[in-house]
Design a protein that fits this description.
Layout (H helix, E strand, L loop, with lengths): L11 H23 L6 H66 L5 H7 L4 H4 L2 H5 L3 H57 L3 H16 L17 H11 L18 H11 L8 H4 L4 E3 L10 E4 L5 E7 L2 E4 L8 E4 L5 E6 L1
Antiparallel strand pairs: 1-6, 2-3, 2-6, 3-4, 4-5
């Protein structure tokens, strides 16, 4: 006989658990569908290049702030030394006048105005002719010399204090730029770490291909290109001796360089001092407006804000320290937005 027993119904607790599990599965599927996809290699490269360029812009500002800091530190040291010497001279003058007063005191005839001066500021008394009339010519001259020295000393102290404040502000700016550069480079590295080993290898090949496009890893054949000058040729040769040295922000050699660090170091080897930053080096000689007029050894400026610089190597090539993660190399001048050249 067939059984007509009703099938057992799931308990309310079991239904609730199944419903919750299904809901969670749907939610996870939805999240997976809407999760940000892994960035493409091309997007990573584009963003990393942008971050490297921003880091180089910040590096040139850092270099400028560092140069300002060094200059201000020298000025502060000089002013503080000057103030110390001035205080020593003032003490000697006071000592001389004190000896006069001491002699007068022993003879019982100390001049009231000398006594008054030794207890306060001479400026008050120098402004009163009556007071000066009470002094001998020599004493009046001594008082005026001391008062002048005091005024000069006060001015030098104020100047030193202002320079010290400028130095403090510059040090803060230096620290801010340093943090900005490190942040940009760290972000770039994070992006690169999202790539697979195969993608990183492909990216490296693309970078090498770009560097070698219209270029050579060896010294280019200059052909009819005559160096801008003997000094320019020497600077170019010095820079060429550093091919393969890594780009390091803020570095000026001899084992690593940033862009303006390489050009300033190269010209220093040729006996010519250049300013530290690319923007300052842009004013270090005669401007050359067209690429066709460039000669080997000329400085070459890139980008609208002139944050990148190299040395023209002839045959349409520039020798430079390119960017973080790259080394000193020859590269086609057309790989970057050329602005103008400078003949030192």
């Amino acid at each position: 006989m067939a059984s007509h027993r009703r099938p057992k119904q799931p308990s309310r607790t079991r239904v609730t658990v199944l419903t919750a599990t299904a809901a969670a599965a749907v939610a996870l599927s939805s999240q997976a569908a809407h999760a940000d996809p892994k960035p493409k290699k091309e997007d990573v490269k584009s963003e990393v290049d942008k971050l490297y360029e921003q880091a180089e812009q910040a590096t040139e500002k850092y270099n400028g702030a560092k140069e300002d800091q060094e200059k201000l530190q020298k000025e502060v040291d000089g002013l503080q030394d000057k103030v110390a010497r001035g205080q020593g001279e003032l003490n000697q003058l006071r000592k001389g006048l004190g000896a006069v007063a001491s002699g007068q005191y022993r003879s019982g005839s100390i001049d009231p105005s000398v006594q008054l001066f030794l207890s306060g500021d001479p400026d008050t008394y120098l402004d009163k002719a009556a007071t000066l009339d009470q002094l001998s010519g020599k004493q009046a001259e001594q008082l005026k010399t001391i008062a002048d020295k005091q005024r000069q000393l006060a001015q030098e102290r104020a100047e030193a204090a202002a320079k010290i404040k400028d130095l403090s502000d510059t040090r803060k700016a230096l620290g801010d730029k340093k943090d900005e550069i490190k942040g940009k480079l760290a972000k770039a590295q994070e992006l690169l770490n999202t790539l697979t080993a195969k993608e990183k290898e492909a990216l490296q090949k693309e970078e090498s291909s770009r560097a070698n496009r219209g270029s050579s890893s060896e010294r280019p054949n200059l052909g009819n290109d005559v160096p801008a000058s003997q000094r320019g040729a020497a600077a170019l040769a010095a820079a060429a001796s550093k091919i393969g040295s890594p780009y390091v922000w803020g570095a000026t050699g001899p084992s690593s360089f940033d862009c303006s660090g390489l050009t300033s170091w190269a010209y220093q080897q040729a006996g010519q001092s250049l300013p530290r930053t690319s923007q300052a080096q842009a004013g270090a000689g005669t401007r050359i407006g067209s690429q066709s007029a460039l000669k080997p050894g000329d400085l070459v400026l890139f980008y609208g804000d002139l944050h990148h610089i190299g040395l023209y190597a002839g045959n349409g090539q520039v020798l430079h320290a390119p960017k973080p993660g790259a080394s000193v190399r020859y590269e086609s001048i057309n790989n970057m937005p050329f602005q103008y050249g400078v003949r030192v």
